[in-house]
Write a structure and sequence with these properties.
Number of strands: 0
CATH topology: MetI-like fold
Distance between the termini: 50 Å
Structural class: mainly alpha
Largest sheet: none
Strand content: under 5%
Radius of gyration: 23 Å
Number of helices: 13
Amino acid sequence: MSFIRPQRSVLPGFGLSLGFTLFYLSLIVLLPLSAAFLKTAGMTWPAFVEAVASPRVLASYRLSFGASFLAALVNMFFGLIVAWVLVRYPFPGRRLVDALVDLPFALPTAVAGIALTALYSAHGWVGQFLEPLGIKAAFSPLGVFIALTFIGLPFVVRTLQPVLAELEPEMEEVAVSLGAGRWQTFGRVILPEILPALLTGFALAFARALGEYGSVVFISGNMPMRTEITPLLIITKLEQYDYRGATAIAVVLLVVSFLLLLLINLLQKWSRRFQFA
């Protein structure tokens, strides 16, 4: 009679793995966030409203959320084109272009901010051509948008590339053979397959842009009510030893970001249902 030994998994069982997961997430994510909420809980309601709803703070919300959303939207469009070119078309220098996509990942944010400021200032390589047209890129909201677009592109491209690589070109050929045009093929064959990854890339780019600080402070000019972003305002309050005011603004930023990311996740779930319907 032969006995078959049960094969042991390389990884621990579900219970132990779940315990490690919850412990690690609690230590790295939940505890710091809980500290911000507890610090804010010591404020009275009028003091909290005054800290998070002053005109200067509201102006920083509008710039941070608006520029981050627009930058993520632009990156979602152009990131799809870049990922499509890198996956579908072999050309000389493709590996170099593919490596350049990761440059915002590797480049220190301060270096990126200095480089963008030098490029888009009134006497920069690009800014000197925009200035006669009445377009002020550096030290304006447009500069904030440029910086956030720069740092968010890799998130969309790297999210889409594996999905596009697994998408079989034969599906498009079948659609064309059945009489579908280019836009019909894209809308009915390609888009349903890549939509969850596209939304994920948008969410990652948006979240990254919302918390960006280093590259923005150089090119924005940091003018209150005009080019001051919310992370900079938090740093300013910390330098003024207004810790409760800083954590109150951080909590608002956290809650709004969480709600927006939750909405995007619900859209991803809906898109998957639409894909398999």
